[in-house]
Amino acid sequence: MNGVLSTGLLSLIGACSGAIAGSFLNVVIHRVPRLIDAHGGNVSGAQYAAGLSWPGSHCAKCDHPLRWYDNIPLLSYLLLRGRCRFCGERYGVRYLAVEVLAAVAFACCLVTLGLTAKAFLAALFLAGLVALTIIDIEEQLLPDIVLGPLFVLGIAFQFLPGGSIGAAALGAGAGYGALWLIREAYRLYAGVEGMGYGDVKFAGVLGVWLGGAALPAMFAVAFVTGLAVSVPLMLMGRIGRQVAIPFGPFLAFAGMLLFTLPGIGPAIEMLFAF
Ligand SMILES: [Zn+2]
After folding, report:
1. What is the distance in A from the centroid of ligand 1 to the CA of 214?
2. Residue 246's pLDDT band (boundaries 50, 70, 90)?
3. First to last CA, the chain
4. Ligand 1: distance of its center to the CA of 143 in Å?
């Protein structure tokens, strides 16, 4: 097949599957924190399956069920200009942003890796990072129901050509272990929890996907961007010193960066090795 044609076709397949995945991610982002609240923090797999599949999509304001044609990723949002057909309530631009991000992620992965299992797994990883980022910012929560599948998919990814199950095991142990130590040390020193346990598990999941060798650079990026964002906010008085800042978005950003551009790892390490 002609190169331009196949790139176009792969982008199209990627954008369509990504938009569908993004539409499901919106359901996960919206419903998982509410399910956790409703079940007092302890949600079974069956309760998640039921809660995520039923009821069908409906307007969060007027509860009116959406027609099937109001449920088409990207298109419906644009045609209805982000409003409910029944009550006119504006949906946040976040719904569109998540679908667009997932569509772009899938298209990029398919164009780079071809129509392969590896491409779809990589795209699901990037989409999962988007979901975790939004849930953590909104709810200060990194739910197991998202972390668990990402962990399993990461192991599957490392079994594919080019992967290394040894690197994944090292990454999982080192990622989890490093943040566990920091969390415990801070708790002993300050007497309060400075970091959520979700961040510790998330670092382990990232370690599976990136492998152990990429973790020093990943933590460096996560801590530096975390400080770069939170210190100015504290100085401007926008957040207090005692307010816990969600660390998940910075881990997700660093993970995404090192995953898509693994070549920059050594350069980042050199920057910190003086
Ligand atoms: Zn409505």
Report:
1. 46
2. confident
3. 49
4. 28
To which residue do tokens 């719904």 refer? 95
- Three-state SS at 58: strand
Q: What is the phi-psi region of residue 209: left when phi exceeds 0, alpha when psi lies from -120 to 50, beta otherwise?
A: alpha
**What is the helix, strand, coil percentage profile of the chain, to 5?**
75, 0, 25
State whether residue 116 is helix, strand or coil. coil
Q: Give how far the C-alpha of residue 66 lies from the chain's centroid of Cα atoms, to the nearest Å.
A: 26
Q: What are phi and psi of 193, to 5 degrees?
A: -80, 120
Structure confidence by residue, pLDDT tens digits, 75-133? 888 888 888 888 888 888 888 999 999 999 999 999 999 999 999 999 999 999 999 99
Q: Do the Cβ atoms of 107 and 14 come closer than 8 Å?
A: yes
Nearest partner of 57 among 41, 37, 77, 79, judged by Cα: 77
Q: Which amino acid is at 169?
A: A
Residue 83 Cα, ligand 1 centroid: separation in angstroms? 8
Distance between CA atoms of residues 75 and 82, nearest Å: 10
User: How many A from CA of 78 to the centre of ligand 1?
Assistant: 16
